[in-house]
Amino acid sequence: MQIFDTLSSMGHEQVVLCSDPITGLRAILAIHDTSLGPALGGTRMWKYESDEAAITDALRLSRGMTYKSAVSGVNLGGGKAVIIGDSRTDKSEPLFRAYGRMVDSLRGKYITAEDVGTSVRDMEWIRMETKFVTGVGGPGGSGDPSPVTAFGVYSGMRASAKTAWGSDSLSGKKVVVQGAGNVASYLVEHLVKDGAKVFVSDIYAEKAAALAARTGAEVISPDDVFGHDCDIFSPNALGAIINDDTIPALKCAIVCGGANNQLKDEKKHGEALKARSILYAPDYVVNSGGLMNVASEVEGYDRDKVMRQAEGVYDITMDVFALASKKDIPTFEASNALAEERLRKVRHVHGSYNGSPTIRGV
Known about the structure:
- 45% of the residues lie in helices and 16% in strands.
- It is an alpha/beta fold.
- It folds into 2 domains: 3-68 and 76-127, Leucine Dehydrogenase, chain A, domain 1 (Rossmann fold, 3-Layer(aba) Sandwich), CATH 3.40.50; 146-288 and 314-334, NAD(P)-binding Rossmann-like Domain (Rossmann fold, 3-Layer(aba) Sandwich), CATH 3.40.50.720.
- The chain has a 6-stranded parallel β-sheet with strand order 8-7-6-9-10-11, sandwiched between helices.
């Protein structure tokens, strides 16, 4: 990887490499764009195959957060962090407190939150060292953002159904949910309640089995998720799963899920879905409920307001589809265009963010 060429082409402002040998901390913190405000994005913990893979993930995820904030109307910039390690075995209070010190050194330019492999407890350890963290428990905290993320995905899925079939009811629709984590679990509950026939899968078989037992969904093998006959395929695990190998196997009319960066190559694979007449709900649009949730904590948490915002993902998704249809372009291009338009207008007013936010209750 030619790191500076990559940063220039993707538009990043800053990337910080964090290392603390005593606690075992190895992390990458990426700040993409702060035109709308301080960069906010979760911290992911994952056992990456290489340092380059971790950096690539941080860069892609942080760029996605910028676009997510812009298209959803949130006044925050885009950032993301990844900690290299196994979230099941490598977590410790000293590691997350060391990471919290790294976050604090940026003086509010980056605000972190929960993501894949991290939890509310981890955020509370980080909070011991910095106020620039959201998604914590207790009075004034927003806690786990997963329920709001899932409700946003569900709202986006209903908008997708409306566009594809003329009705936003999911009753009787077959939905394959890839992943059985927090977001997927809440999403499955909404789908089952709506009358959908749900199939769940996860690389951890026990998680899929537990979710199925609790909701009445049916478990399928991870090897079968892409080729399973369904109306909607919903990725809710890791990214880059829509690619050269999986697109030909898809047997669905809609792709709509909570995972970030679902398209391995945005242009190539977004166009490939369009060529197959598969309606793609851009991931950073439909999963923006989680961002809305933690963003509210910066201003003073209001759960009812956040849920109304997440319900509004329906209208945002419909706007994306309308623009894509009007211009006959892939849906990812339409969502990017809407995000970039807002970024251009606000950047003209005040440029990059250069002050510390006030997080109420801190």
